[in-house]
């Protein structure tokens, strides 16, 4: 497998995020829309000064500090786990890292993040998001899958270990 693939994944997410945001910023006015699939999927130029789903508006310094801490923690964890972790985990961490850096750069430079992917389900409109957000969500999903699979493996190992211990105790002469 390619060495440091998890960092290449982060770079890919960052580049896709950067390129798509700049395209939207230069080609569409704010709140201008392009229908991709009827009213279900729209490209909508939107700016977000908050976090996911528009919460914590106007908290730029807070987001910058938190993102520096998170990115530092992600890099430390990737380095600590790179030789022993399963690919699910490292790919997930790479996706989160690329997304976090993508949104961080926008907040640092502009004080806001460009969102543009809008999905509507009947009368409900899912909050508008971007490629970085997608990387973060998909990455977290892979991290959760890895956590669940690791917990299952650990449980099976501990049960097998307990069975062996019980068998050893039963087979020993008294």
From TrEMBL:
<comment type="similarity">
    <text>Belongs to the peptidase A8 family.</text>
</comment>
<feature type="active site">
    <location>
        <position position="133"/>
    </location>
</feature>
<keyword id="KW-1133">Transmembrane helix</keyword>
<feature type="compositionally biased region" description="Basic and acidic residues">
    <location>
        <begin position="155"/>
        <end position="168"/>
    </location>
</feature>
<dbReference type="InterPro" id="IPR001872">
    <property type="entry name" value="Peptidase_A8"/>
</dbReference>
<dbReference type="Pfam" id="PF01252">
    <property type="entry name" value="Peptidase_A8"/>
</dbReference>
<keyword id="KW-0378">Hydrolase</keyword>
<feature type="transmembrane region" description="Helical">
    <location>
        <begin position="61"/>
        <end position="80"/>
    </location>
</feature>
<comment type="pathway">
    <text>Protein modification; lipoprotein biosynthesis (signal peptide cleavage).</text>
</comment>
<feature type="region of interest" description="Disordered">
    <location>
        <begin position="155"/>
        <end position="174"/>
    </location>
</feature>
<keyword id="KW-0472">Membrane</keyword>
<keyword id="KW-0812">Transmembrane</keyword>
<feature type="transmembrane region" description="Helical">
    <location>
        <begin position="87"/>
        <end position="105"/>
    </location>
</feature>
<feature type="active site">
    <location>
        <position position="115"/>
    </location>
</feature>
<protein>
    <recommendedName>
        <fullName>Lipoprotein signal peptidase</fullName>
        <ecNumber>3.4.23.36</ecNumber>
    </recommendedName>
</protein>
<dbReference type="GO" id="GO:0006508">
    <property type="term" value="P:proteolysis"/>
</dbReference>
<comment type="function">
    <text>This protein specifically catalyzes the removal of signal peptides from prolipoproteins.</text>
</comment>
<dbReference type="GO" id="GO:0004190">
    <property type="term" value="F:aspartic-type endopeptidase activity"/>
</dbReference>
<keyword id="KW-0064">Aspartyl protease</keyword>
<keyword id="KW-0645">Protease</keyword>
<feature type="transmembrane region" description="Helical">
    <location>
        <begin position="125"/>
        <end position="149"/>
    </location>
</feature>
<dbReference type="GO" id="GO:0005886">
    <property type="term" value="C:plasma membrane"/>
</dbReference>
<keyword id="KW-1003">Cell membrane</keyword>
